[in-house]
């Protein structure tokens, strides 16, 4: 579903990605872990075209990312951010139907019906007409996930979706992600929630200094990493 090969990215003199290569199969859940500044967010942003890699190739569902394919790929790969980025002056439901109505050109009634279904799926069915400000961080993030799903994505990229939440709100968001994984969604999840990664992810990728240091089956790698740098990182975050 996603194949990235040898991507490099520099911001000025800061060579952030130094030849990153990995693939994600359809229906696979891959956790991307690594220290702050290792380039995890930049990888996700390159995959959905928010940043342009300097070299290397990115393919999504068989299409190579480039000027011509960027709009379609950006639509088919949804992103869920650490900060939920909901529109504050629009209701929960309006936030969810914005993309389907304006980008996918779905009839509003149809988009709203599906939006309500998606909100129910993330446990927010009774809050459709609320404004985001009146919701907890965990509830806003669940709306953020519903909004991502409303675009009918082929894959969802999560960038530290629980890092901004109060600890008691983390579980409800992980639960939504777990059920999404069980339904077969293709997901890349940047997270420091190692227990979640071990349990839910098929594969784990450890990045440091802009390169993939180690990757493997999530449970094995996150329990018994082979690379000293991975081990050091896991010892620090666990
Ligand atoms: P991570 O998500 O692993 O913490 P990032 O991909 O956010 O790492 O950042 C990697 C490096 O790239 C950092 O040094 C960061 O300062 C730099 N960086 C990221 N985005 C930009 C940008 N838009 N402009 C300049 N530097 C950036
Ligand atoms: Mg990041």
TrEMBL record:
Ranges for domain ABC transporter come to: 2-234
Task: Give a Gene Ontology cellular component term annotated to this protein.
Answer: plasma membrane
Q: Specify whether Cell membrane is a keyword of the entry.
A: yes
Q: Which UniProt keywords apply?
A: ATP-binding, Cell membrane, Membrane, Nucleotide-binding, Transport
- Matching Gene3D superfamilies: P-loop containing nucleotide triphosphate hydrolases
Q: How does it sit in the membrane?
A: Peripheral membrane protein
Question: Which InterPro entries did the record assign?
Answer: AAA+_ATPase (IPR003593), ABC_ATPase_HisP-typ (IPR030679), ABC_transporter-like_ATP-bd (IPR003439), ABC_transporter-like_CS (IPR017871), MetN_ABC_transporter-like (IPR050086), P-loop_NTPase (IPR027417)
Q: Keyword Ribonucleoprotein on this protein?
A: no
Chief localisation class: membrane
Subcellular localization is given as: Cell membrane
Q: Which GO terms describe its molecular function?
A: ABC-type amino acid transporter activity; ATP binding; ATP hydrolysis activity
| Family of the protein in this entry | Belongs to the ABC transporter superfamily.
* Protein name in the entry: Polar amino acid transport system ATP-binding protein
Give the lineage.
Bacteria, Pseudomonadati, Pseudomonadota, Alphaproteobacteria, Sphingomonadales
């Amino acid at each position: 579903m996603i194949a990235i090969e040898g991507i490099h990215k520099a911001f000025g003199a800061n060579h952030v990605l130094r030849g990153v290569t990995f693939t994600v199969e359809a229906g696979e859940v891959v956790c991307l872990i690594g220290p702050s500044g290792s380039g995890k967010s930049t990888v996700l942003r390159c995959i959905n075209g928010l940043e342009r890699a300097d070299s290397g190739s990115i393919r999504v569902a068989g299409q190579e990312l480039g000027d011509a394919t960027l709009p379609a790929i950006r639509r088919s790969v949804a992103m869920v951010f650490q900060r939920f980025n909901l529109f504050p002056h629009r209701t929960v439901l309006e936030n969810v139907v914005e993309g389907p109505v304006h980008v996918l050109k779905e009839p509003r009634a149809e988009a709203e019906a599906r939006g309500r279904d998606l909100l129910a799926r993330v446990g927010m069915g009774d809050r459709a007409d609320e404004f985001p400000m009146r919701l907890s961080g965990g509830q806003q993030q669940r709306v953020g996930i519903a909004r991502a799903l409303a675009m009918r994505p082929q894959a969802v990229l999560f960038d530290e979706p629980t890092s901004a939440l109060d600890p008691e709100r983390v579980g409800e968001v992980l639960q939504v992600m777990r059920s999404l994984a069980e339904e077969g969604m293709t997901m890349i999840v940047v997270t420091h929630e190692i227990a979640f990664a071990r349990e839910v992810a098929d594969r784990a990728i450890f990045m440091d200094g802009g390169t993939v240091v180690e990757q493997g089956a999530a449970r094995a790698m996150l329990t018994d990493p082979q690379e000293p740098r991975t081990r050091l990182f896991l010892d620090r975050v666990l």
